[in-house]
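ARCHIVE CARD
Drawer: 12
Card no.: 0347
Subject: one protein chain, sequence and derived structure
Cross-reference: see card 0346
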Amino acid sequence: MKPEQKTMEQNLEFDITKITDVNQFCLGQIFMYLNLEDLLSVADANKYLKRATYTIFMQKYAGKSVKIDVGNLVSRPLFRPSPGMRHICIRPEETKYGPVYDELSDVGEEINILKLKTIFQMLRCFGPIIKKLHFMYGFDWFGDGYKTHHRIMEYVSEFCAESLTKMITEARAINQYKKTFSNVEELIISEKCNETICLNSIYPKLRILRIGPMPYFGLLIADTFPYLQELDLTLANVVAMTYDSYKSAVATALRLNPHLKSLSIKLNDFVFLREISDNLQSLESLDVSLNLAEGSFYNNEYSDNEEKIYFRNVTFFRMNCMTSVRHTTIPSIPILFEQLKVFTLEGHGEYELHHDQCDYDDPSIMMFFNTNRTIEKLTLKRKILGTLTDPTMLHEALPALSELTCANSWFDIDYVYDQFENTFTFLERLNFYGFSGRPTDRRSLIDQVRGICSEKCQVSNPYGRFIKLERIED
């Protein structure tokens, strides 16, 4: 070998730099331009590169929820998601059978994973820094399907047990986790449960617990959760054979956690709330969804002698009337609040309470106003109270009222004008939300509102279908 040739080869070898020779800072600057799929591939290459991708993942995706839908994995050439799936990124190409969907997509507030290999890759590489996990398990819990579920849950336990702070999961999967999720503060449980599950031992630091409807209820919630602040559950439409045991478990849980600050509960009537109200005196927020299905509503008539359900510290109260039959009166609300400031009344269902059938003068709602005179902000939604027939009566019942929001899908400029003329003498703010029509029609309505109200108030359109009128002080 000639000396000149040897020197050239030595110099060439000396000039070669491997990517692992680049420092972490420079790698971070390079990886910043990678999409999620490429970033995941780099992280899975070796430990040195994975360490460089951690900072990038936290900067770009830390606030997103990783959603794994095992029931809709891309296991076939053509994948069709279930009708309820959202935030799916569709590839531009189409086939004669329909669109083909991405196996990994970053859309909105979620990272959706639809391929089994990518699930394991994501959990293995970024599990220790994933904060939010949304797990949907599907229905195949037998044979190969069970093995797949079990393996994924092993990965979640191994790589995410210390990092997760929020988790959405099915109840039947909780017992499959092998570790304690010591930092999970918010837990949302969906689907049914027919096993005995001790939540407190698996999630010892729960602050927010939301439980979906479960025909077969096996969650051991009748326990003390020292950090629990918010609870969301249902006692409406529970299967009759499990109702008593479920109701007893919920009552025990509320008795053992008197420090609860927020309760959202679905009920068939107010009886249960009356029974456990003594244990809820630390509540600051109460959200009641009342099922008005035929035969479920225990009292649709106001009784002056009816014993009141008392709450000392609640400042926010929302009542949602769920109905599958036609009701023409507002249900009695036998609740007395000492410090209520914000009240929202709404409804939905097959038959809504229509504006031409009920109004502010309904005896039950006016009696509620007269007994809760500290209300400052009132929101009336979904046609449940459509006409303000006597604003003077409303003002007398609620002397502290300063803000009224009317949210309906049918009001027009005449309605806005009537409410403005009738109520703005004592209100500081009058809001309208949900007016229908095309965007051009909405802009025209806003211009008309400005035309009739500009002398007395500031008119703004903060977003979409919302008009805000704020009184100008003299």
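Annotation on reverse: The chain is about 30% helix and 25% strand. The chain has a mean pLDDT of 76.
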